[in-house]
């Protein structure tokens, strides 16, 4: 059975970690979170935030290893610009895996702001961005086909079902979603 790389991206506090964790639990799939990788790098080296591409580089290597073992992988990261997004298809292809890209959005600005301002830090040591930082963050529009999940209008369980369906379609297809 062909493994599938599911890459979940979106702005901070859009709901991508919630979706990624629920998907990983529901499907018993390895889960790689770039925030945790980057914080570990900061905790164990002389580097400070932002660490640049190193967190993504580690995520690619970890995901590729799991895919080569025949396992599906869920990767969660902001994935804000084309250069960060464009490497994932190559990671999947080199491992003989299919790819499902998911963009998580929160269309309700008041709800998004509430999440940014009230969510607890779940990665020890990581300082979450402020609402102004989220609004000012570079975030390029996506240009490839992807699954878009609006967490302002879609329950987590329904979003998981959508991504699972896309994963199964990608597994049996020769193209990426």
Radius of gyration: 16 Å
Mean pLDDT: 94
**The CATH C-level class name:** Alpha Beta
How many angstroms separate the termini?
A: 17 Å
Q: What is the chain-wise order of helices and strands? A: EHEHHEHEHHEH
SS-based class: alpha/beta
Count of β-strands? 5
Helix content: 40-55%
Please state the oligomeric state of the protein chains shown. single chain
CATH H level: which superfamily? P-loop containing nucleotide triphosphate hydrolases
CATH architecture: 3-Layer(aba) Sandwich
Organism: Microlunatus aurantiacus
Pfam families: AAA_33
InterPro entries: P-loop_NTPase
Protein name: AAA family ATPase
Would you mind describing this structure in some detail?
By secondary structure, the protein is an alpha/beta fold. It has a single domain (4-172), classed as Rossmann fold (3-Layer(aba) Sandwich). Helix content is 47%, strand content 15%. It contains seven helices and five strands. The protein has helices spanning 16-27, 34-44, 54-68, 82-94, 109-118, 131-136, 156-172, and strands spanning 4-10, 31-33, 73-76, 98-105, 147-150. A five-stranded parallel β-sheet has the order 2-3-1-4-5, with helices on both faces. This is AAA family ATPase. It comes from Microlunatus aurantiacus. Pfam families: AAA_33. InterPro entries: P-loop_NTPase.
């Amino acid at each position: 059975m062909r493994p599938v790389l599911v890459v979940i991206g979106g702005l901070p506090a859009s709901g991508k970690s919630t979706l990624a964790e629920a998907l990983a639990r529901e499907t018993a799939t390895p889960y790689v979170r770039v925030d945790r990788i980057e914080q570990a790098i900061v905790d164990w080296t002389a580097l400070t935030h932002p660490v640049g591409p190193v967190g993504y580089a580690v995520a690619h290597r970890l995901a590729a290893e799991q895919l080569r073992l025949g396992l599906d992988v869920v990767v969660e990261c902001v994935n804000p610009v084309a250069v960060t997004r464009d490497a994932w298809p190559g990671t999947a292809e080199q491992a003989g895996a299919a790819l499902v890209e998911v963009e998580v959005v929160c269309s309700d600005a008041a709800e998004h702001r509430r999440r940014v301002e009230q969510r607890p830090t779940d990665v020890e040591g990581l300082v979450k961005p402020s609402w102004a930082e989220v609004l000012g963050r570079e975030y390029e529009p996506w240009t490839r086909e992807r699954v878009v999940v609006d967490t302002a209008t879609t329950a987590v369980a329904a979003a998981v079902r959508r991504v699972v369906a896309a994963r199964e379609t990608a597994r049996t297809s020769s193209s990426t979603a």
